[in-house]
UniProtKB/TrEMBL annotation:
<dbReference type="Pfam" id="PF03401">
    <property type="entry name" value="TctC"/>
</dbReference>
<feature type="signal peptide">
    <location>
        <begin position="1"/>
        <end position="26"/>
    </location>
</feature>
<comment type="similarity">
    <text>Belongs to the UPF0065 (bug) family.</text>
</comment>
<dbReference type="InterPro" id="IPR005064">
    <property type="entry name" value="BUG"/>
</dbReference>
<dbReference type="InterPro" id="IPR042100">
    <property type="entry name" value="Bug_dom1"/>
</dbReference>
<protein>
    <submittedName>
        <fullName>Tripartite tricarboxylate transporter substrate binding protein</fullName>
    </submittedName>
</protein>
<keyword id="KW-0732">Signal</keyword>
Amino acid sequence: MHASKRALLAVACGLVAGALPFGAMAQAAAWPTKPIRLLVGFPGGSTPDIAARTIAEPLSKALGQPVVVDNKPGASGNIAADQVAKATDDHTLGIVINGNLTSSKMLYPKLPYDPGRDFTYLSLIATAPLMLVAPANLPGGTAFFDAARKAGDTWSYGSVGVGSVGHLGMEQLKSRVPGMKAIHVPYQGNPQVVTGLIGGQVQMALIPPGVALPQVKAGKLRAVGLTSGRSTLAPEVPSLSEAGVKDFNLEVWTALLGPANLSKAAQERINKELAIIMKSPEVRQKLFDQGWQAVGTSPDGMRARVKEEAAIMSKIIQANNIKLQ
């Protein structure tokens, strides 16, 4: 009888021991287990920084861990993107812009990461059309493009740098407006582009509505049109198609991603919580007040958009032989 009890105890111990790996696995699958680092490749106050800080607090509350925004500006966001790609702690995410995923690979021959292979795509965060603006003394609508054709290469346009969405978008626009030959003038940032427009150093630029609208409303700049259909961000501004530009659609956006090795537990938890956060009226209003539309996409939806835009940007870069040193 005593031996029988020992046998039963051994069986019980064996069952408990057999169950331990499953318990350990369940515990290991819990995510997050420490603060999340959210890398932003641009300085404080920039659009990606605004997007990051808008979602950081609600994401922190949902996950039960601090979400720390860490600004690592440089190389148009590519330095931070590379750090995300190489992260191995399962608690590092990043906020990126169009170019980091769609054009950087073609512009930077030595880009240290592969946009299609080195990341886990999570979701778009915010989108906005660009607004074509000009000095206030120039006409709007179709008359603007008539004047641009007539001026040829004596007119210039500003952007925040070679390879930026404002630069590539304007080259795409020129391909849709035969005879428009405005020359590119790069600036350090959109505030400098606006100064150049107001001073008449450049005659046009594609800039976000949040930057452009205050100057338009003050009568310092003229809004020619939006690079998408009509938008609630600037309901009084027509689309460029209304000014005669056909087959032209362009938006700027920010997105959330992680390294390719991000655990399934992390992916599932983030996707679940972010879907709720991006529908929050408070989050949507905060982004809207900064000139952005809040969006939430599936990882597959984000990947499809990146693939489509990368193909468009590749054609623009190749057609204009755009290169970065």
